[in-house]
Design goal:
This protein is of the alpha/beta class. The protein has 18 helices and 5 strands.
Amino acid sequence: MEFKNWFCLKDRESFTIDPKINPPDARFYFGRAQLDDRMKNQIKRAFIDPQVPKMMVWGPYGCGKTQTLYYLAYWMENQKPPSCKGNPHTVHLEIEVRSKSTAAEWHLQNMEALGMAAVQGWLKDLFSKSADFEKELAKLTTDPNIVQAFSHLRGGGDLGFGAWRWITGQNLSSKELQEIKVTRNLGSVGVGDLVAALQACGALAASVGHRLVFFIDEMEELQNVRTGDAAESWHQYIRKLADNANSYVGFVIGFKADTRDDAPEMLVRGDVSSRVSPNNYIELETLAAPANVQQFVREMLNHLVDQDEAEKRIQADTLPSTKDTYPFTATAFDLMCDYACQDVIKSTPRNIIRTINECAIAAWDSQKKVVDEDIVNEIAPIIFG
């Protein structure tokens, strides 16, 4: 019998949760009801003022940062907050940063993650409903170069591709600049150029009924930036995005940090944190307390296991388990949760999920119908020890 059938799993191959591999997993958020409510309430308020969310999510390795980002995006798209003026358009991005990386490379990654097709689609929608397309474009930005680039991007072809390359901040030759009728390369006068282009894309999205929100993960990579000017460009980019004047491009940034002092300095500097607001710096703590771990695991098993099938199997085979703890025996469940609480630092969702999966695999490999204490004592010390 296959692993998933052995343990009555619902439409999945294992107990692993990873929204990057299995997008439906983004709907899961276990054992953190108060935090869940807090984040959603902050986002609902943000859609009123400044009209898009601006949030930082941080915590130690394995704390559930990536799951949190995907979950919030899933919630935003599938249960749109009433305060959101338009349909949320979410963009996921795992940032890549080298020692000399500047904000220009961040801008390029943002734009490529957003995608040329999405922006072209919005331009075509705006064109189809506009009596004067150029006039509508001029409402999106005060920069005539961006207006020109948008105009050519809508048209497609070689000029449209050149315009997209310009919007993403790539350097064009003098001939290419002349062809799309812009006077300089984007970013040649500073980071403000890049942010203006991104904000124009957000304004374009809003003009056709969308709200653009980026979910940016792995921002602890900013620690790799060693050059002063490069670091300052990142700081200026995020500061301008965080400014209240930006009401079109939202962001939820995730970064790994054991304490706030470990965070990349440009993400927590005073002029950034005051714009984002202290209430929008969300710390993901480890689960730590036994009650928190048990709640997390019970909710997880309840969602992943077919409860009716599990109940039938427990009764038919007289298994020493319950619907709440299956596929663990009741004593093995308590033992696993105890192991998870022995070290506060290691009491993370990642480690707990890994333990559940490894224990279940060990039971299946031994053809045991439930995970017993022997298996927990074999697996859990390796992960939590």
